[in-house]
Amino acid sequence: MIKYIIIIIMVMAALYGLYKLYLPKKAAQEFSYNQQTMTKNALLVPIAILGGGPAGYAAGLYGARAHVHTVIFEGPYPGGQLMKTSHVENWPGIQKQLGSDIMKGCKTQAESFGAQIAPYTVKKIHTDSWPYKLTLLDGSEVFALSVIIATGASPRKLTIPGEDKYWGSGVTTCAICDAPFYKDKSVIVVGGGDSALEEAMQLAPYAKDIMICVRGESFRGAAAMIERLKQYPQIHTSFKTKVLEIKGTGTLVNAVTLEINGEKVERAIDGVFLAIGHIPNTSCMPEGMRVDSLGHIIISSESRETSVPGIFAAGDVSDHRYRQAGVAAGDGIKAALDAIAFVGSTGFIEKDNKKILYSPNKEGMYTALEHILTTAEYEQKIAQDNKLVLLDFYTTACPSCMRMMPIVERVVFEHKDAVVGYKVDAFVGAELMKKFVVPGVPTIVVIRNGNEIARTKDTMTYQDFNAFITEFIK
Ligand code: NDP
What we know:
Helix content is 30%, strand content 24%. The chain is of the alpha/beta class.
């Protein structure tokens, strides 16, 4: 009997040994690069970075500087959340600078080392085989040896009556974009964190009355920001205050129903600015990737690697705790160093694979829309055109506008026989803003024979916007 037990133990030990020996080899084989396995005409990116915020650009800088072919798929919000902030004073090494300028600098620096910027969005990462397939929003595909997910987070909504109805017509998450439309108006800012404090201060030069509605009993933001509020007599705070409903005239917000200390109160206001935190952008994530209870991508305790080998995460998409631009940049650097090591471990030699490396087409091939500023200019242009006319109202500080602009340019370019497009800078085209009653940006107005026939305030994908416009040129 003892003899049999010893034999069974020896067999099990041998099997365990074989298992230990075999597994790493299998994993190594699975991630060992072999050009023969690449499908004909397939294009390859050794380091694909998803997201053009501080994490994405920092990762791009390190990837490219290590001479690894690196492509940053900027996604729908080039520049990320810093594009919405005004001055940043906690980016190490810089005393005070506009968030958008810091991001421009990060992008330029990454590009100067050879990182390629793709103004596209990756819709999905597929991990059933390696190199991993990435599907872009326009349906095209590229393959990646390693991926860094740096897609950031999107503003959370209240999900209360009236919010969707008046989205973009009085309800917004971007004070720096829309503040000038609220000159001498009354607004509320919802939230008690740094974003809410900052939104209120961005509104201060314009709005006559700003009430910050905090659901709790105190702010969550930094002491320095709370202290700074004292400089603004037009900003008031209402604690223990919930927003129950947003009301309006059908096209514009004119009131909110609040619950203050448990009591329902109706308040006349013109705008609602939401600053109630963010939700991680994980829709591109492959099936089965591990996330925490709040939806953030879980990474290893040792590195930035996710639960899928060769895929790394950086910035707010994987950070529910710090959520600082500087931390995101640091994460991006770590993720790039991990990705460089991973690519190196696959045996991939870049110089032998130059022909199949993916480089993005430059969206600049679409002609930029012509500017118009005054009603007289508009009348003159429209008089000459019996085509469908698109007026794209924008501001350069508005990330959603910057996302929509190339899409509008592309659609106008592709339908140039039937469609003509113009852009109106909302800060200087006040006359046209008034004529078309544009309460916020982006707003794209569709005109036929001098009459408005439709408009959209949503940020759309190329496919959706193209489908929207095609309806009118059938
Ligand atoms: P935070 O998560 O810090 O704050 C969110 C706020 O929204 C909290 O007060 C929260 O209330 C409130 N909230 C959440 N959900 C709701 C809801 N459904 N209804 C009403 N209120 C709600 O997010 P922020 O965007 O303000 O900040 C994110 C990070 O970015 C932070 O780390 C912050 O420091 C940083 N940041 C830094 C800036 C700077 O340094 N210049 C500027 C902006 C942001 P409650 O507290 O009750 O949960």
